[in-house]
Structure formats: structure tokens, C-alpha cells
């Protein structure tokens, strides 16, 4: 069994986090102006609280680590329990709605966008949490579940749900067919409230695939 990696030194990790967040933001400021530009972003403080919580957790100070978890939930709406291993240079540009399990392992320089979920599969036969490589992007509302490995430089596209290993350098996108809206009458309504439709199911085509209006 591969040994679980350790978190990087706290201050080194925070410096890398700030530098990577500034790069993602495209900041051109230098010196104190650059520091102020990053330190006023909620994403930096959400990562800072998570890192402090992980450090306290590793030292056995579990009640204090729980306080940082609660602070993240209250201040930024980010569900980041202590216990994870997080490589240097993590970027959470928009932390609201991000939920990452306490046992995940995340590599260096990862970008995690809004609404991302990473955690267990919920199945007794698939116990464990994801291991995410270096330079991985998890785009908006994507999810990674179970004891899977996401290779270095992979990109998990918006709304993609991944429950299998992904090799390095791969791009994972939701199938175009899944962008169709499938609409059908509700079956739990009283007869007098149910819609009077002959079709059992209506399909709204993907608007991007339709011809432009003349």
C-alpha cells in the first residue's frame, strides 16, 4: 500500500496559494499591492482556514480544527473538513458551494471551481476517497467520488461526475446528448392537478445544435 503523503509546510503552502491565485486572477500588481490584491479575496481565506484546520488536525488538536471547519462554512459557504492532504498552490477562486471530504488527497497547483464536490462513493464495496494529481482542474459543479485517481494535468469539465480513474492529461466532458432537457408529467400529483398531456415524455433539443434564426 502506498503511504499517505503529508501536507506541505504551512507557510510555504500559503505563499504558493497566494502566488497561484494571483496568476489565475491575472493580477499585474507588484509588492504590497499584489499582496493586498490577493489577501482581499474570499478564496484565499477559505484555503487558509482549511490549511490551518488540517495542520491542527495532524497535531491532534481536533476541537480547534473543527472550529476552522465551522468558520469556513459560516464565512464562505465552503464545506472543507480537516484531515485532507492538500498540495501547495491550491486555488479556490469561488469557494461557495465547494465540498471536499476530509480524507481526500490533492496534488500541487490544483484549481477547484465553484460547486465542486469530492468525496466517498457511498457504496460499501467502494470504500475510499479520491487522490487528485498535480495541476488538475475541477470545473464548475463537477464531482469526483470513490477510491479513484485523477492523473496529473487532467481537466474534469463542468457538471461531469467521475467515479473511475482518469489518466494524466485527459479532458473529461459531459456528453452533448445529456444537455437535452427531458420533460414529463409528474406522477405524484392528484388527477385534477396533473397536466393533460398525450405524450409521456417531451424532449427539448439542445439549443446550441439548432439552426440560427433568420
Automatic annotation (TrEMBL):
This is Serine acetyltransferase. Pfam families: Hexapep. It comes from Pengzhenrongella sicca. SUPFAM superfamilies: Trimeric LpxA-like enzymes. It comes from the Bacteria.
Amino acid at each position: 500500500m502506498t503511504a499517505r503523503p503529508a501536507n506541505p509546510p504551512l507557510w510555504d503552502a500559503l505563499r504558493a496559494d497566494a502566488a497561484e491565485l494571483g496568476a489565475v486572477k491575472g493580477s499585474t500588481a507588484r509588492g504590497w499591492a499584489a499582496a493586498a490584491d490577493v489577501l482581499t479575496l474570499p478564496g484565499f481565506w477559505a484555503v487558509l482556514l482549511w490549511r490551518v484546520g488540517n495542520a491542527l488536525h495532524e497535531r491532534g488538536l481536533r476541537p480547534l480544527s473543527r472550529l476552522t471547519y465551522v468558520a469556513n462554512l459560516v464565512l464562505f459557504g465552503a464545506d472543507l473538513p480537516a484531515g485532507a492532504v492538500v498540495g501547495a498552490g491550491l486555488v479556490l477562486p469561488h469557494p461557495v458551494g465547494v465540498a471536499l471530504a476530509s480524507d481526500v488527497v490533492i496534488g500541487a497547483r490544483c484549481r477547484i471551481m465553484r460547486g465542486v464536490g469530492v468525496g466517498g462513493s457511498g457504496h460499501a464495496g467502494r470504500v475510499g476517497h479520491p487522490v487528485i494529481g498535480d495541476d488538475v482542474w475541477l470545473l464548475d459543479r463537477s464531482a469526483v467520488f470513490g477510491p479513484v485517481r485523477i492523473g496529473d494535468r487532467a481537466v474534469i469539465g463542468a457538471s461531469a461526475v467521475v467515479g473511475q480513474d482518469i489518466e494524466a492529461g485527459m479532458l473529461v466532458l459531459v456528453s452533448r446528448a445529456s444537455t437535452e432537457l427531458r420533460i414529463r408529467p409528474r406522477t405524484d400529483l392528484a388527477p385534477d392537478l396533473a397536466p393533460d398531456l398525450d405524450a409521456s415524455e417531451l424532449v427539448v433539443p439542445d439549443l446550441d445544435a439548432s439552426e440560427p434564426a433568420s
